Amino acid sequence: MVSDRALGSGMVVGSLAVFVFYLYALFFAPENIQYLVLKITVFLMVAVLAGIVGYTGYTMLTTPPPIPPEELEKMLREEEERIKKELEERRRSASGEGGEKAGSGGGE
Q1: Which of 6, 7, 29, 93 could be bridged to 33 by S-S, CB 3.0 to 4.6 A?
Q2: Tens digits of per-residue pLDDT, 52-73?
Q3: How far is CA 106 from each of CA 19, 91, 92, 99, rounded to the nearest angstrom?
Q4: How far apart (Å, rounded) are the C-alpha atoms in residues 90 and 26?
């Protein structure tokens, strides 16, 4: 497996090579190439920006609205009451089962 240092070195060398090529193509190549490079660069910038805006819009479109704080507090209180009732019922049934077993076993 490639080490992080080797991968980092390759990325630095690659980015420098792309920069030098772009510099040449933009300033030192024939004018028709310079114009093409500018057109491609602007197109890519607009495409990336449009993609980011489109993705953001899609995310906003498909994400449900947040729950208002009052509604959230109400839901939490209801859940807390439900859990308290459930625990109380478990305590009653646990203590009730123990008493019934002892009572029914002793009466027979």
Answers
A1: 29
A2: 999 999 999 999 988 899 999 9
A3: 92, 23, 21, 11
A4: 77
